[in-house]
Amino acid sequence: MLNAKDILAGDQRAGAQVIRLIEDHDPAAFELLKELYPHSGTAFIIGITGSPGVGKSTLIDALITEFRNLDKKVAVIAVDPSSPVSGGAILGDRLRMQRHAADEKVFIRSMASRGQKGGLSRATHDAVIVLDAMGYEMIIIETVGAGQAEFDIASLAHSTGIVSIPGAGDGIQAIKAGILETGDIFIVNKSERPGADACAGELEMMLGMRPPSSTGWAPRVLKTCAIDGTGVKDLAKVFLSHFDFMKKSGRLDVKKKETEHLYFQSLLTQLALEKIMQFIHRSPEFKQALNNIESRSMDPISAAQKVVNCLCGLDTQDYKDRR
Amino acid sequence: MLNAKDILAGDQRAGAQVIRLIEDHDPAAFELLKELYPHSGTAFIIGITGSPGVGKSTLIDALITEFRNLDKKVAVIAVDPSSPVSGGAILGDRLRMQRHAADEKVFIRSMASRGQKGGLSRATHDAVIVLDAMGYEMIIIETVGAGQAEFDIASLAHSTGIVSIPGAGDGIQAIKAGILETGDIFIVNKSERPGADACAGELEMMLGMRPPSSTGWAPRVLKTCAIDGTGVKDLAKVFLSHFDFMKKSGRLDVKKKETEHLYFQSLLTQLALEKIMQFIHRSPEFKQALNNIESRSMDPISAAQKVVNCLCGLDTQDYKDRR
Fold first, then answer.
1. Does any CB of chain A come closer than 8 Å to the CB of residue B227?
2. Taking the alpha carbons of A234, A237, A239, A242 in that order, is the dihedral positive or negative?
3. pLDDT above 70 as % of chain B
4. Do B304 and A178 touch (CB under 8 A)?
5. Which of B10, B235, B273, B284 is most buried, judging by how many CB atoms fall within 10 Å of its CB?
6. Number of structural domains, chain A?
């Protein structure tokens, strides 16, 4: 039987099980999360983002090694928004970080959306609470860095590292990805390739044009070669110094408040939507709308408006009877 | 004054204005969409997707030229889910296709999410209805092809072209992006680069391992060099032959029904959510929950559950009074 005590004790199997419940949108997850929540709030959450092919997984693998050398407990969540179709990433990412599998102070998990629309950022937030309560000091969230879900997930991170490579990620593409504003640390990976210095220089220049951050942190540009570990020790240090900065400046507390508020809003929206849609799907107005669309006697916009207008007229008794 | 008649007559200024209303979530857009909807349903909708840097905009620019040579009216919607932060893409993409600006049978528009969560795929669908009603025969939707919003947008397309380039998009990354299953036509762009044949061969091999499509269409792999137009004429022909196949096999009608149903569901969800959240935000239970979270006397999960549980007790009178 899955219980909060085992998770709080850091049991990896129990942790994996509750994350599975979260992914499956199992209501049992809520009950556990309520117990775990008060024990969360101490981890440092790092976002690592970048286009496919820039070497995020390899870089994170090397970062794990550096954080372990500093005796930190490390958890990784690789978020794959494209998985409703393929699911292929789960295996690939895990294989890359396999060498840490035997280390009981390392926990690696891929999260997919399992076909649920829009639930991925919430599920990732839930998983972070679990890992935080399990005592992981560093929680790394890997995303591909495009799309609304990743944007929401990135807003969870206390520190965001944006990975690019020489050649591919030129200036226009960096602006295009719209991520320049969101990064705290910019990583030029595969720095053994020609053009690495130019790429780093271009980033420095673009960051120079960025309005000064309201947090007072000056973004850093670092070069790494994740495959042989070059520069990753420095990268780990810069992340930790950013954490330190966040704590001392009071920015971390502000960020945590914001995150908590967003978490509440997102839960509230989900639960309210579930409730109202359950009600709607049982209503005769909904069935009528489907018929009207099918017979082409009404356009989908008018049909949806008509169903929702009926919500005004529902009374308590009626609502309770239909449940 | 913006009216449906001008839009149906193909007035580009009026079209741009209504798309702007859609992006702004202006309720006036609904009224126009209801008038336009019955006049939509004849366009061929092409999705073009791929990672940043593969040359999607340049390829679409070349495709426009080919479709114009066949005397087709062409519209392009470049969807940029990352724009809530930067907005930079809008200018960049437009610049690339600028040479068609004077052609009154070409309409190019970028869509950004304007900070609204999850509304981008719906807004894109709305815009497609407008362009379809305006008489555009080919509607090309450009997305970066990762993330839930793009996934939803891709499901709008009758034909999906997936763009990759030699070197960057190796096999593992293609699986990772989870897009192999969703493509009808695979395009190896920048085919002047070394490795183009190998890349095309690898795609052919991976497609060979894919289970046969339920539609009966055998996916095609084509090489293009968008910058000088090599291979783009063939690509245009293959898209048109896929459209032909969709029509003759009856698959197009099935797809249109599915799309219409999804459109209705998405409208219904949005409208129902707006209504219920308006109600919640005015309720004393919501304010109490915010206070409880602020004072740390309740975790956000319990607080959200408590607010939603109160929805059971609302009666019509109460609901109407608070509006």
1. no
2. negative
3. 83
4. no
5. B235
6. 2
CA atoms of A235 and A184, how far apart (whole Å): 12
Distance (Å, whole) CA B248 – CA B254:
12
The mean per-residue pLDDT over the stretch B81-89 comes to 43
- From chain A, pick out residues whose CB is under 8 angstroms from the CB of B85: 151, 178-179, 181-182
The answer to whether residues B192 and B301 belong to one domain is no
Q: Which residue of B has its CA nearest to A275?
A: B308
**Nearest CA distance, A308 vs chain B (angstrom):** 6
pLDDT digits (tens, 9 = 90+) for A112-140: 765 555 577 888 999 999 999 999 999 99
In which residue are the tokens 């998009």 written? B169
Element (H, E) at B140: strand B138-143
- B7-63 pLDDT, tens digit each: 999 999 999 999 999 988 888 999 999 999 999 999 999 999 887 778 898 999 999
d(CA A139, CA A136): 7
Containing structural domain, residue A297: 282-322
Give the residue with greater pLDDT, B100 vs B222: B222
CB B106 within 8 A of CB B139: no
Cβ–Cβ below 8 Å for B311 and A273 = no
Residues of chain A found within 8 Å of residue B118, distances taken between Cβ atoms: 118, 148
**What span, in angstroms and rounded, lies between the C-alpha atoms of B85 and B72?**
35
Domain check: are B54 and B175 in the same one?
yes
Q: HSE of A142 in the Cβ direction (CA atoms, 13 Å)?
A: 29
Residues B174 and B210: their CA atoms lie apart, in Å, by 13
Scored b (16 or more CB within 10 A) or e, A253-270 reads eebeeebbebbbebbbbb
- C-beta neighbour count of A69 within 10 angstroms: 10
For A306, which residue in chain B has the nearest alpha carbon? B268
CATH code (residue B201): 3.40.50.300
Q: Are residues B303 and B155 in the same domain?
A: no
The interface pTM score, or ipTM, of the predicted complex is 0.83
CB A179 within 8 A of CB A206: no
B91 band by pLDDT with thresholds 50, 70 and 90: very low
